[in-house]
Structures are given as C-alpha cells and as structure tokens.
Amino acid sequence: MTGPAGPPARFEEERSAEIVAASFARTADPRLREVLTALVGHLHAFVKDVGLTPEEWARGIRFLTETGQTCDDTRQEFILLSDVLGVSMLVDALAHPAGDGVTESTVEGPFHLVASPAREPGDSIVEAGDGEPCLVTGRVLDTAGVPVAGAAVDVWQADADGFYDVQRPGEVPRDNLRGVFPTDAEGRFRFRTIVPRWYPIPDDGPVGRLLAATGRHPNRPAHLHVEVTGPGIRTLTTHVFVSDSPYLDSDAVFGVRARLVRDFVRVDDPARAAEAGLPSPFRWLDFPVTVRRT
Ligand SMILES: [Fe+2]
Q1: Per-residue CA distances from 98 to 93, 217, 256 (Å)
Q2: How many domains are there within the chain?
Q3: Cα 223 to ligand 1 centroid, rounded to whole Å
C-alpha cells in the first residue's frame, strides 16, 4: 500500500485495479474508499473483458460528454441514462426491500417537479383535457393491517396524449392531473381522473440514440404515480400500471413490477357512475396500499 511519502505507483496491466485502489488508501471516508475501490475494480475488469479499443474509449467519452451537455434545469440526461440501464430501479429496489406485504416501490420519475395541490376526498384532478373517466379508490394500511389515518396520498399522471402538465406550460393548468388526498379514519382515499396514456421518455438526445442503436423503443406503459407520506410511516413511492396498456413487457426504464399492474375495470352502470360523479361508462381502479410504520 502506498504511504504518504511512498514512491508513485507504477502501472502494471495485470494489477491495474489493485494499483489504482491502493491510491485511495488515505481516503478519510471509509464508505467513499469502499465505493471507489469497487468502482475501479469493476471498471478495469470491464475494460479488460471487452478489450476496449482507444477508438471505443473515445466514443464512450464523447457519449458521456454529450449526456452532460444535454442536461439543464428541466432535463436530466444522466438520470435518464441511469433509468434506461436499469440502475435507477436497482438502487430503488435495494433501498426499499420487499417483504411483510409492503407495496412495492418504484422510482419517483422526473415529472414531480412541482408540489401537487391539496384536494378534497372525491375531487377530480382533471383541470383540462379529455380522456376516459376514471374513479380511483384505495386504502392505506400498515403491515399489521391497521388503517393509516391522516396520510397524504400524492398522485400525478400523464394525460390522454401522454403528457404531464409540466411538459405543456401555458397549454394546460399547471396542476392538471395531480393532487394530494388525505386518508380518512379508515385509511381510505378516493378521487376522480382519466385513464393515463403510455408515453415516450425524451429520446432526442444521447440516450435516445443509445435506444435507437440497440433497437429499443423509448416508451413507458401507462401508469399513475402514487406517493404516500404521513407521520409514523415510511414514505412509499410507487406506480400503478394500467393492465391493458402497451409496453408493459418492455418499459424503457424497467419500472414494471408484476404486482403493480392493475385492472382499471370498466363499469357500465349509470347508478354507480352517478354515485361516483362520473359519466357512464367509467373505469375503476382500486389500489390498496401497504406501508411500513417507522
Ligand atoms: Fe410517469
């Protein structure tokens, strides 16, 4: 191991990762040292495994440079790259292990840019636009089956054309298709909306070119984002996927988990439609949620 006054490490191809890792010996933060050592180990092994050529290395550097240059205040191409490589979902899965019947977690995604408005139980989140009318009901329980009263259920979704409100500034009200609903004493929540549509992730940058080069499409299956927060519970961030949506088996960002795919049931019953405050027929999603107490 190289000490403070030791000679500079000499490069040897066979021991390359070990030599570089030794240069981290005086890293004050032990976790940083662990992460950097493993990163260099995997990176060197990757370069050796594929026999990376100088031309390929330069191309990779150009790609990463362009990825950075595509980022601005509203566009994060590096997160998109992480998403399409499945890393975002993997990090999320490691941080939120399943078990005890807890509802599975997914990434928050890039469209929760603004705080959703507080709404009353049963309200509609549709401020503008058409779509298939939909009633969403659900109940927040803890792992012991006890209702979680006073939780906040934050929902946001794409419209019938596959766009979020923040993607259409000036065209639709900013709070279109988002809202925060309280749970009642029984943990219940309900609201009215439209069925969301599938949509493509931004594919006009380096990540889009990566998808095209690998024969992949940029689309995500239709989904509703749900985030449940409240005193005494661990925040749950998840999606509900529409079971008759295209792309459920090829989500560009690998977000689909089998138990999060739900039927948005078609209800053709004028009495129930009137009760729900919706035209008939309508679609109905019931989404029970299980969270962990802290
Ligand atoms: Fe989304």
Answers
A1: 8, 29, 14
A2: 2
A3: 6
pTM > 0.70: yes
End-to-end CA distance of the chain: 43
109 and 164 part of one domain: yes
pLDDT digits (tens, 9 = 90+) for 45-64: 999 999 999 999 999 999 99
Kindly give the residue spans of alpha helices, DSSP state H, lying in the chain.
16-22, 30-50, 54-69, 77-84, 87-95, 206-213, 270-276
Do 125 and 44 share a structural domain? Answer: no
In whole angstroms, give the CA distance from residue 273 to residue 276.
5
Could you tell me the residue range of the domain that residue 36 belongs to?
1-52
Same structural domain for residues 19 and 111? no
Name the active-site residue from 119, 139, 188, 223: 223
Concerning whether 220 is annotated as a catalytic residue, the answer is yes
- Told to judge if 26 belongs to the known catalytic residues of this protein, a careful annotator would answer no
Catalytic residue among 119, 139, 197, 199: 199
Residue 89 located in a structural domain: no
Is 260 domain-assigned? yes
